[in-house]
Amino acid sequence: MNWFWFALIALICWSGSDLFSKIGCCGEKDKTAHLKMVVAVGLVMGLHAAYMIVFHHVSVTWDVVWTYLPVSLLYILSMTLGYVGLRYIELSISSPICNSSGALVAVLCLCTGALSDYNGPQKAVILCAVGLVCLGVVGLGVVEAREDDDLRRRRQEHANRKYAKSWLAICLPVAYCLLDAAGTFADSLVLERLNEDSANVAYELKFTFKAELPKYVGAACETVGQLFYIYALADEEHVMMSAPIISAYCVASVLWSRLFLKEKLSWKHYLMIGLVVAGIVILGIYDI
After folding, report:
1. How many angstroms separate the CA atoms of 96 and 168, rounded?
2. 122: Cα separation from own chain's centroid
3. What angle do CA 254, 280, 118 make, to 5 degrees?
4. Which residues contact residue 33 at a Cβ distance below 8 angstroms, ignoring those fewer than 6 apart?
5. pLDDT tens for residues 122-165?
6. pLDDT per position as a tens digit, 20-68
7. How far apart are CA 33 and CA 21, in angstroms?
8. How many CB atoms neighbour CB 126 within 10 A?
């Protein structure tokens, strides 16, 4: 059951990272805000890595570093593209598209026999719950893509921020989605060989070392979320279930965008959010 709570904590932390990263990256005058966000994340993760090495005696050898390097590069590249995308697109649109990666990971796990140990009824319940989460996450992106231009303009007026539809605005979160899915699936394979603490520290050490407060709050949320994300994926039997739950942090991000960034939502948004919540609850109850 630990995997479920680890996944939920990662979901909450990464939704907070989404919100504060959006606040930290949306300045129109600062053209390097996304790079400063990456530096802020690197600084906080570097400090956490040093803490784990010094006080928890986590072993990080060159073998661990080189083994985890491909996974780290996929994550870092996807994260950087995600921060760039936040300058061009609303959080309520970007986050659902980015986090459709959880659905892709579930499909990859299914293709590699992730549910082979479950019987027919158990498999049906799990597939139904995972399907609800994936449908809700992907559905949020579809709802945003099909939204009427007048409704979009009215919503952006509430947020006092204008975004134009463009290929760049959509391609950046789509690229994030593909890279993050590849990284998550590779992570689940690499963690069969590496200790989760060593793998997490190896990832944090890949970042290099002035940003405003929201950037560092977002970086702190990112770091805590990453820690619990690794612990959730370390439970190899539940990767197919934990990956969609974690990717559903976009649902909380959409709610935060409504509450704090004034990005207005429609009943369709709330319907998709309800599907995700229902799927997560089913997975949690099923595994108690």
Report:
1. 16
2. 27
3. 145
4. 24, 25, 26, 27, 83, 87
5. 777 777 877 887 787 777 767 766 766 666 666 555 544 444 45
6. 887 777 655 666 777 778 878 888 888 888 888 888 888 888 888 888 8
7. 10
8. 22
